[in-house]
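Collaborator request log, item 7. Partner lab (contact: R.S.) asked for a structural prediction of Regulator of MON1-CCZ1 complex N-terminal domain-containing protein to inform their binding assays.
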Amino acid sequence: MGEEYYLELTENPVQFENASSVNNVFFDEANKQVFAVRSGGATGVVVKGPDDKSSVAFRMEDKGEVKCIKFSLGNKILAVQRNLKSVDFITFIPDFPHLEFSHECKTKNASVLGFCWTNWNEIVFVTDQGIEFYQVQADLGYLPHHQSINVNWYIYCPEPAVLLLSTTVQGNVLQPFAFKNGTMSKMPKFEIELPMVPKPAKLNLSERDIAVATIYGQLYVVYLKHHSRTTNSSGAEVVLYHLPREGSCKKTHVLKLNTTGKFALNVVDNLVVVHHQSSQTSIIFDIKLKEPDCAVNVHQPVLPARSIHPYKIPLTGPTAAASQASVPCELYSSTWSVFQPDIIISASEGYLWYLQVKLQPTVNLLQDKGKLMEFLLRRRDCKMVILSVCSQMLVGGDDKGNLPVVATVFDKLNRVYKEYLEAEQAYSVVIHFQSVCFSFWLVCQLF
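Returned to partner:
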């Protein structure tokens, strides 16, 4: 059974002080940092990131309950929200004294839902009446960007710097904004198709059911669409809406979950991973495995549902006996929080893991060798697994001597190799052209 676990948690997680009555835990998706705030910061704030460079510890005055806390890029400015009207700032710029200042949102009678950093000194306040874009300095310079719009909730995706606002009474009309180099661009709004429309109208789309993720280099809004399992429905679905920088957002993929319940989503190595809490299993989807020329592609799971590989938490301190150096971690716990693209956090245990895909177990779980080869060729660190598949077909196994299967597999390998050679040749042509242009420029300079 151990060979069938195709998902696992990282062996060396980020560890932090677990959440308690005196310690609040926050996560910043942009910097991938966990904040452990003790007693409002008066007895310490410990920030743990993916590496030691992004980790820091400090104290700050307790001015009330912390609702949100995040560093700007590079840990240069700290922003702390303690109420619905303003955000406090503390500078951490090297070789400069610490400055502390506060700023209220400019929109009258608005409540600040949260904020997101778009650069080391640029921040967006999201209020229930719109967004306000600022350049942060001692006087909090106001950039000429302000949008008035009724907002239910928001999601920010840091890699493409895209902010998604939920609008309208039902919450299913989403308005995206893109940020780049101190500018804000309003993208075309779009509507999420709800399974049913409540009467009277009320908020029917939650931020828990929406994620923004990059898959195969394209930006998608990922919608977890719940259904009651009836004769007309096979269960919940994950609907992918392609969100281009220019043009309208369109529904392009539907992932069939074939069950109901509580779900959570990750994206790992361009695979959509869906976790199901009640069965304590996960399934994966590869949107590249699709029928050609379909406006909306419907997908079934690539592999059968399996649990994440069991994980043991090491015991430390005087309670750790030599006979019991670790205890099993409760997988799919109700206290888990899942963040994009591949992060799972247990605030109660004090761990942040990255989710990983193991390729070797997929070899025996995906019987169609042609489909298996397509799947493997799109994954990181796939070479040794592909070699083992080819060796198994040629030397031993059920497919030994099955020439049509062998031919299909090697056709796929040759196609990928051909694409690589063509890309390499095109790159060589560009380099040669640049070299000729540079030589011509040098000659012109001489004469």
